[in-house]
Each structure stands twice: as structure tokens, then as C-alpha cells.
Amino acid sequence: MPRATLRRACRALATVTTLTLAATACGGTTKDDVKNEAAPRAAAGKADPDAALKKDLTVAFLPKQVNNPYFTVADKGGEKALKELGSTYKETGPNSATDTSGQVSYVNTLTQQQVDAIAVSAQDPGSLCTALKQARKNGIKVVTYDSDTGPACRDAFVSQASAEDLGRTQVQLLAKQLDHKGEIAILSAAQTATNQNTWIDFMKDELKDPKYKDMKLVKTVYGNDDPQASFQQTQGLLQEHPELAGIISPTTVGIKAAAQYLSGSKYKGKVALTGLGTPNDMREYVTNGTVDAFELWDPARLGALAAHTAVALKSGRITGKEGETFKAGALGTFTVGEDGVVNLGKPTVFDKRNIDDFDF
Fold first, then answer.
1. Angle at Cα 159 formed by Cα 154 and Cα 164, nearest 5°?
2. Looking at the structure, do residues 59 and 155 belong to the same domain, yes or no?
3. Taking the CB of residue 307, how many other CB atoms lie within 10 A of it?
4. Which of 175, 220, 229 has its CA nearest to residue 199?
5. Do 188 and 94 share a domain, yes or no?
6. Could you report the per-residue pLDDT of 96-140, keeping only the tens digit for each?
């Protein structure tokens, strides 16, 4: 697939890439999971990058599920950033990740409370849209983070990382471990998972670079984000390809299941494994030498960037229009992309040196 086509796919994916709960993070969002609002966003006025940064704002974080380790880390990052910015943080939300209608009532309540901004990780992108539009009509700035709605329903979306970065860096990470040599395979989630397929397209495009001439992708298999199925797919890969040198699994369920199989097999330390995983899932396998390194975004930085984006919007420094730039404290300077998407940046690599610094 040409790079230009992949980038278009990446932009299309921005509204559907989602990290679900710790057990199924990065598993896969299908096209049917998102009901995008096609209508353009309402005009938000002109940005003034030199506008005074407002203080004493109230920014509410509405995660998919409160008390979930991933969102606890993300929202604590937002809380810390808001404290540094002189504003007030609050968190509210459902106790269940499957309570898709519950988020609507929380948005309505926050609208009635007249908070200044809402940072929300959408459980059901379509069902939230009407409530978020009403919040915006009441002057509330809406930032989505981790999981988006349609562009018409919010002012900006803070994305974990671009699809291109996620796809290419996983190949780069494995190639480094293999000294750019050997047969490799991919253990994905479902065949219909839009984000997984987009990442894999970028992986394949990355492998076209001459520096990977001694690496060969021999097979892509699907574990459907089921631990047992992913475990069995890993076993099958090694039986079918006894010379396999490495596996990429861009799903937290898949990489953990693959690590479990490798850890108890003769392939431990001989077959490299990387992909997208959470530190808490993978710590055991990094410690015992099954996995050298894997990656994911840092949820604390994601939450902090959501907070900075909300305050920048409320202060008028940005409106969510493509090309606008703003400073986000120690995180650096960010540029708003197409459809109001702000990318956090390249994913974080976890290995023995830093894995104990994270708890999610």
C-alpha cells in the first residue's frame, strides 16, 4: 500500500483507535463500532496563541470506567497537569465499561454543573454525540482522549499515537532484537479489526525498506483477542515455522498469551516477541527473559495532554483547527492535525530498565 494511502487510512482510523480495559487493550475496533458524525464541526472563532492562559477552570475527566488501572493512571496525569496550570480537576464516570448509556447521563450532569471543559474517553462514540454537542452549545469545551467520537461532537481528540507510528515502530523494535534477520510472524486480534489492520499495513510497508531485506514476514494469524485462542495460534506458528525468529502481537491479549506460551516452551529466549502490551501484564515475562522489550503509550502523558488541550481551548489559544500549535508544559509543543486530532507522539518502549516505573 502506498504511503499516501496509508496516511489517509491513518487519519480515518483516528476516530476509532481505542484502548479498552487492561485485559483487552489494543484489541481492535471494527468499522461497525463507531458511528461517525459526518457533519463538519461548528466554527469556533479564531485562535489567539498569545491569549492569557485561564486559571481557576474546572475540567472534568470522564473515563470509560472509574477505578480501572489504565484510566486511573491517565486521569492522575490530567490531575497533576491541571494543578500545575492553576485549575481544578474532577473525575466522574461509570463503574462498568459496558455501561454505554451511563456516560450520557454523566455528560448531562456535567453540563448542568457548568464545568468549563470535559475530557472524555468514549465508550460508545455514537450515543455520546448528542450530549456532547449540547455541552458545547453551553460553552463547555470537549476533548476526547484515548477513544474518540465523531469530529462534530468535540473540539479536539487527543490520540495515543498515530497509526503509522504504532505500526512502524513495532517492526523497528523487533528488527533491533533480531539484528534485522530472520522469519517473523504477526499475531493479531480479529481479522475485521480496523486499527489492527491499519497497523499491519504500516508494518508491511516498513518491511519494504531495504534494511529489512533479510527479514521475511511468513504469516499473519488471528487470536480474536481470546487468551486461549491466541495461545494456540502462537503454538501453531512455531509448529508450522520452526525457524521463526520473532513475533509481533499488536494487541495486549495476544502479546500476553504469546509470552505465556514462549515462557514455558523450548523457544524461550530463542524467539523474540514484541508488540503492544501493558507493563502489569508483561512484567513477569520481561523479568524472566521471555521478552526484551515491547511498547505502548504512557497513559499519564495522555491524560496530561488532554488537560493541557482543554485549558488551551478554553483560553482561546486554539480552537481545534488544523495547523494550530500550543505548548503543553513539559510535554512540549503540539500541532492540531486534521479533524482536530492531537497526537501524543511515538509510543513508549518498556524493558527491564523502566517497566517497574509504571503501574497499569
1. 135
2. yes
3. 32
4. 220
5. no
6. 766 667 899 999 999 999 999 999 999 887 889 999 999 999 999
* Dihedrals phi, psi of 143, to nearest 5 degrees: -115, 130
Q: How far apart are CA 215 and CA 248, in angstroms?
A: 13
- The pTM for the full model equals 0.79
| Residue 297: closest CA among 128, 130, 170 | 170
The last residue of a domain, from among 263, 280, 296:
296
Last residue of some domain: 257, 276, 296? 296
Residue 43, judged by CB atoms within 10 A of its CB (0-12, 13-18, 19+), counts as exposed
Q: What are the C-alpha distances in Å from 46 to residues 43, 150, 155, 225, 312?
A: 9, 22, 13, 44, 13
pLDDT digits (tens, 9 = 90+) for 267-293: 999 999 999 999 999 999 999 999 999
Residues 289 and 304 grouped into a single domain: no
Could you tell me the residue range of the domain that residue 264 belongs to? 163-296
Query: What DSSP string runs through 114-148?
Result: T-SEEEE--SSHHHHHHHHHHHHHTT-EEEEESS-
